[in-house]
Design a protein that fits this description.
It is built from two helices and no strands.
């Protein structure tokens, strides 16, 4: 069964969201493991913590992925 254009874009968007979330969780886990903490185990600084992916981040990634698919037929 082949997908129509809307289904392909939806799938690419889902993949971009998943990729952005995987990257965030990976960076967050590394940050959690390596950040310095005070006596109560609270992080001393959160300024270097990774930021949660925004919609713009997901859309930019999706656009790159979709262009790749379009250009490699």
């Amino acid at each position: 069964m082949s997908l129509n254009a809307y289904e392909i874009r939806t799938e690419v968007l889902r993949m971009a969201k998943d990729l952005a979330l995987e990257e965030y969780h990976s960076k967050y886990h590394l940050w959690e493991e390596t950040t310095k903490r005070d006596e109560s185990a609270k992080p001393i600084s959160v300024t270097d913590a990774p930021t949660f992916p925004t919609l713009d981040t997901v859309l930019v990634t999706a656009e790159k992925m979709y262009r790749f698919v379009e250009n490699h037929k």
